[in-house]
Amino acid sequence: MSVNAPRDFFAEQGIEPLTAQGYAQEARAQAFPYLKALSERVLVYDGAMGTEIFKYNLSDADYGGAQYSGCPEILNRTRPDVIAAIHRSYLEAGADVIETNSFGSMPHVLAEYGLEAEAEDLAYAAAQIARGEADKKSAEKPRFVAGSLGPGTKLISLGQIGWKEMFESYRTAARGLIRGGVDLLIIETCQDVLQVRCAVLACRQAMQDLGREVPLQVQVTFEATGTLLVGSDDGAALTVLESLPVDVVGINCAVGPDLMDTHIRHFCQHSTRWVACLPNAGLPRNEGGRAVFDLTPAELTRWQLKFVREYGLNVVGGCCGTGPEHIRALVEALGGCHAPQLRGSQQKQTPSPLGQVASLYQSVPLRQDTGILIVGERTNATGSKKFRELLFAGDFDGMEALAAEQVAEGAHVLDVSVAWTGRDEVRDMREVLKRFATSVPIPIMVDTTQPEVMEEALEHLGGRAILNSINLEDGLEKFDRVAALAKQHGAALVALTIDEDKEAGMAKTVERKVEIALRMYERLTQVHGIAGESILFDLLTFPITQGDEDTRKLAQWTIEGIRKVRELLPEVGFILGISNVSFGLSPQARVVLNSVFLDECIQAGLTAAILNAGKILPINQIPQEQYQLALDLIYDRRQFGPAGEVTHDPLFAFVDYFAKNKVDKAQARDPLAGLGLEERLKKRIIEGRKVGLEADLEQALEKYSPVEIINQILLEGMKVVGDLFGAGKMQLPFVLQAAETMKAAVRYLEPRMEKLEGVHKGTLVIATVKGDVHDIGKNLVDIILSNNGYKVVNLGIKKPIEEILAAVEEHQPDAVGMSGLLVKSTVVMKENLEYMAARGVSLPVLLGGAALNRHYVENDLRQTYATGPVYYASDAFDGLQLMEELTGHAPPRLTSREVSGHKYKTAYEILQEKLMAGSEYIPSNTPPAPRIPRPPFWGRRVVDKSELEVGVISRYVNKNALFRGQWGFRKGEMSQPEYEAYLERLAEPMFEEMVLQAMAEEWLEPAVVYGYWPVASDKNELIVFDPESGAELFRFNFPRQMGAGSRHLCIADFFRPRHAPPIGDEQGWFPPAAWANGARDVLAAQVVTMGRKVSQVAQELFKSDAYQDYLYLHGFSVEMAEALAEYWHKRIRQQLDIAQDDATSLEELFRQGYQGSRYSFGYPACPRLEDQKYLQELLQWQEIGVELSEEYQLHPEQSTSAIVVHHPAAKYFNL
């Protein structure tokens, strides 16, 4: 191979999109008419293809047979006239660009129709049809054809397809489009950044195959959640696009322009390419099975005008639901509109996009604004014994935990090295990165010297990785191979100052470091077109601890080398493996030397370091003497006598000091010590820090009265807490922690107050309504209000209206609050308001709870309670805001908002309608079960806590329901892996701690009653028989699904009809009297509880202001009851011998990964709570301390009952 880097087809053409200077916009515009047009004016694309095809009502025959029905690409062959007519309609509307009908023309997509071999031809046909129509219309103005390629049907980051298959698939389709004469290729609706890179490289390969280059436009799709389907945020997506040879970047599909706004702004502000926006016509709604889009042409135009004028957007158009009328409106408003000036001038201000790297989820600047880029070093088989052992054992969970630890410690990037003699490095890297790619939220540094390992890694990593490393040790051939890989995949590079010199390859002196760095820089930038911002030089760290003459100055030379190269090449970055410098010293001495060396390197210009973040100290935490000793060692400040003998050796002094001074772990310092008093107190509230609170309050009392401290300082802190929670930036448990601290502060100040009158801003009487045992929501309102200056009279649960009004009489509050979780509670609230109105009560009423909605409160209930105002509070902070407004402490916002205009039925109304309709009988024709399972006994059994282990039950907890639902840890703006790492760090340890505590303190008293009864169905009814006498005990009457298009399901259908012929040998083992009376099937039933004690413990925590512990304990106990139900259901399946299909993972189990179903009364398929009385009759659950309230609620709250159905077709369904 020649010393010159391999020339490629694109370089020969001289218009490489990406050079060392960035995107070559002007050269590209001169070379391609489409880009030239973009540099002059805003271009308008066409609208949807699919929704237009739909309007033609095509038959199977139009598609060339039923087997191809629904395949749009086949129409290029069977109905080219339809496709041409759609193109024509957009061209007549004035579109500058039309997209080919080839969205799914990749072989791996067409394989679904058996058309994979036709892919290239169908793509070619699509291009030819569009080209023909565009050319007919190009006399009036230039028209362009964009060859459309969609995302395909498989996500590469989720392992549904491999790199090579996807690459070849896009390459094939792109070839057809390029041959067919398209002006550009558009890879659109991309949901995975790894697929983007694969498709871009494949399209470039297709251009090379045919010797014809066209511009590339790539558009990603942000879901309504704000990320791509795989979880990438806009920063990560743009970082990937900017590293690739793409001319236009953009966003299309999934949502309307309103939900694209922030992403379009981000793209326009930070991209060096032209930007496109092709939104859907809003979000669809379903009307008679058809998707209907509501966004009008005028509204679309309004948004696109904003994007062009304010952000400098270059390409407008539409996606799903937009038709020729939308495009006509865009052309009229924007046609011929000059290219926006805004963005050209902005470009220079933002840091170069090539200075960013990204994981699948988020991007990270290589140069941090403050401090340096920290690269975690513990996932390295050479450097970390723990990682090596996990790798050898194939323990991927352990490796992921090790990665998560480094993320928690603050690493920005994770270095991954798996090389070990005798092992297959390619395979190891693939297996580790397959998992890390989706489980690690920060970018990956691929640490290997082998190009084939790098390539394997890059084909699995979404985002933009860093290759560590490239050097000249093996000459230019290998250097060029690695550089070409980095360029192709858009990766950043770590370049080590090592050259071919066999004796002194690793550069030690300043001169050699500078010489090799400059040589590599020149080749990377000039031959390979890699930007300086993408390069991190590693000028090598050597130990300075051996004491021989050769090693004394090595640290100092590295520092000087960084300073020198930085002067010559200001845009490059610098990285070092720090800990090498202290090799061989004691752990404590290493921490100090590493920390001081790092600080010196940073001052010289170091921008990144591979280190263990947990073992670096800030310089201000290192005692002066240790700091000085370390500096003397680094700068080799030996002192010599007259004869040249050493009189002071800094290495010996350093080692000797640490041998003599074994230091304690650094004393925990108060992190708030540096702030002013008022700010410090406010911060203590916001961060929930009780340690040091009383000392600060004592200090504050010298300046302020207790009331002033509360109103002017502490309540301001609580206000910030409310704002943070509202903005999704603070989790519920930490809100409660803040409230606890607030309570502690007020409790400390109370004895020092003259009188308590003027302290409260107002009073609220609050209760959970009659028949409802749920108190957590109401108690959260109590906590938030009472710690924001209000007096709260909390009456408890199951309170009749008479009792609530008696409390109103006694306390004369500013408002009364009612809470309820049950569907039935909405009816009770209405009755309560009628009762109040009839007595002329005019007090403001606040209502909240899961079964309510704003519309029902603001429309129906306001009419009911005509004598006074009634408001809906969606959460505790709404309750606080309403009280602030009602007591004059805040201007009207919630109290004056317009009445909700949407009419929603309440859950209760819907239920009543469904129950009325569902009483009819329409057979669902559910086939019988293959066999009737034989129960181990008939009748009921009690299982007490001696048989039920808390540890076992805890393994069946649905952690998603617990962490997110009960404990309120919200995902907010975190990516999924960040959120998972966050839960791993905060919620998991809490959960494990509670399990241990529950076992030690025995406040959970699990118990179960369950059993088996002979039954038979009779239309919508299920008859339950006495196993002994065979007499009919009672009938469950189950409602039937009656909605249009429903399957008319009913739980009774899953059981054999009365007197039906046997399926197997069940007559031989059935209770004879029950069989004679017509029983033919088996029903299991269960009730589980966690006992009463835990409710009492929770109430004590609440009363003693331990709010956070109260929330944790309450949520834990409720989910433990659910876990016991899940666990006991599994035991019943085992007893019935139908557990053969049970899923092996909990997630699958929670998704009903088993035979049959368990149905609880009150849920969709069996909504009548009053049927609980029949279960009580069967199970006699009073024996384990469970009671039924007058509203058919189980008490204690941590209890749940169900019937268990064995039929394989039994799954959850809605009426």
How would you describe the overall organization of this protein?
The chain is an alpha/beta fold. The chain folds into 5 domains: 7-334, TIM Barrel; 353-618, Dihydropteroate synthase-like (TIM Barrel); 677-750, Orthogonal Bundle (Methyltransferase, Methionine Synthase (B12-binding Domains), Chain A, domain 1), CATH 1.10.1240; 765-887, Cobalamin-binding domain (Rossmann fold), CATH 3.40.50.280; 939-1205, NADH Oxidase (3-Layer(aba) Sandwich), CATH 3.40.109.40. The protein is built from 44 helices and 38 strands. The strands form 9 sheets. Strands 3-12-9-8-7-6-5-4 form an 8-stranded parallel β-sheet. It has an 8-stranded parallel β-barrel with strand order 15-16-17-18-19-20-21-22, surrounded by 6 helices. Helix 26 packs antiparallel against helix 27. It starts with 8 loop residues before the first helix and ends in a 10-residue tail after the last strand. Residues 1-7, 344-349 and 664-669 have low confidence and may be disordered.
Brief write-up:
This protein folds into 5 domains: 328 residues, Alpha-Beta Barrel (TIM Barrel), CATH 3.20.20.330; 266 residues, Alpha-Beta Barrel (TIM Barrel); 74 residues, Methionine synthase domain (Methyltransferase, Methionine Synthase (B12-binding Domains), Chain A, domain 1, Orthogonal Bundle); 123 residues, 3-Layer(aba) Sandwich (Rossmann fold); 267 residues, NADH Oxidase, CATH 3.40.109. The chain has 44 helices and 38 strands.
